[in-house]
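mind reviewing this stuff:

——
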Amino acid sequence: MSALSGQFCAGFCRAETVYRPRRINAYHVARRRGELKYLLLTESQLDGGMMLRFVLRSPTKLAQLRAALPWLQAQLPQLKVITANIQPVHMAIMEGEEEILLSEQAALAENFNDVPLWIRPQSFFQTNPAVASQLYATARDWVRQLPVNHMWDLFCGVGGLWPALRHARKCA
């Protein structure tokens, strides 16, 4: 696994400067108080574009967050996708069902083994991008070598398995 890029670290530090001065307090589990539960940052290996997701307990701080976006985007032009995810439940889950798009772009471009993929909010790789790319390539090689006539992709995460395999054989 590769080390975090300097751009990734800078993105995380800049995102942190958005919520503190605007009194978007971190969620305190024991007290069940505060708004910011998580900052989720994703970096595309293709072009360095980034997706930043603010996971909030409620939508009460959305106005403060929206007001900070022009400054944040000026500081980090590689931020392509910015969202607020509302996770109101006091449970150990990373995100809620409601995703509020705060940027014009809704997905990050990625490319593994000449297969274009789009990372959207609430999508994920089962592992890190380098390992995912190797897994897709291994699966493609197996399909080429075996007498596979049918395949099912149960679609979990970004959905990269089927695009990685579809040209390995003429399958349905």
Remarks:
- The radius of gyration is 19 Å.
- The chain has two domains: 6-105, 124-165.
- The chain has a mean pLDDT of 83.
